[in-house]
Amino acid sequence: MSGNEFANQLAEYGDYHARVTVLGHVQRGGSPTAFDRVLASRLGSRAVDLLLQNRGGLAVGIRENKIVENDITEILKEKHQLNNEMFKLASILSI
After folding, report:
1. Residue 54: what are its φ and ψ, rounded to 5°?
2. Which PROSITE patterns match (predicted)?
C-alpha cells in the first residue's frame, strides 16, 4: 500500500487529515539556499559540457570553489578520510 492510499483510507475513518511526505525531502534539511541553487547549476552545467564533449564516466564536484571532474573508477579506488571537524560541526548543528 502506498502512502497516498493509506492517507485516503485514514480519511474514511474519521476527521483525519494526512499528508504524505517523501523521507528524502525531509532529510535534506529544508529549502535550498541561493548558494545551493547556484552550485547545482554550476555542477549540472559542467556535467552537460562534459557529455557534449563525449566525456563520460566522470564525477563532477567542487574543490577549492572550482568545478572539477574526476574519473569515477579512480575515485572509488581511493580511500577517503572523514573530516572530523566537519563531522563534529554537523553533530553540533543537528542537536
Report:
1. 65, 30
2. PHOSPHOFRUCTOKINASE
CA–CA gap between residue 46 and residue 59 (Å, rounded): 10
Residue among 57, 77, 58 nearest 69 (CA): 58
The tens digit of pLDDT for each residue in 25-55 reads: 666 666 778 998 999 999 999 999 999 999 9
Whole-structure pTM over 0.85, yes or no? no
Domain-wise residue ranges, the chain? 1-30, 33-95
The span from the CA of 29 to the CA of 13, in Å, is 33
- Average pLDDT value over all residues in the chain: 84
